[in-house]
Please model this.
Amino acid sequence: MTRLFIEASRVDKSSRQPQRDMSYAAIPDLWEQYHPGDELTCVVKQFDRKAGTFEISVKETVPNPFDEASLRHPVGCRRRATIAGKYAGGVFCNLPDGVTCMCNYSYQHEDADFMVGEHVMLMVQRYDQEKLQMYGKIMSKW
Model:
């Protein structure tokens, strides 16, 4: 693990720091989560001195919240979560402990009923240990 101080004269929104390396939780917009001047503990994954580019991982400095999630959130339980993003057929929901749950809507709901940032009640349906993924169903708005 490395403590890294980076000073940049400008912020380039075309920079491509992968979201998957910043947090285990789904982040709707990295530019809203991280700001110039933030100090982050990170792992340097790649550095190209000639190109002046680098890639870091913040999430590799903390435990994965998926570890033992099935004990904290057993199949069938209901949990409050926040919608962090949408995909075809459902949403990514962040639980308070950092676990992301991929959720479908229950039969009485549709995509237009839910927006990023809203709080919902979900039911845990299953785990995929190989993909390190939790799946659930949105039951209602919170």
In short: The first strand starts at residue 2 and ends at 3. The longest helix spans residues 30-33. Confidence is low (pLDDT under 50) at residues 8-14.
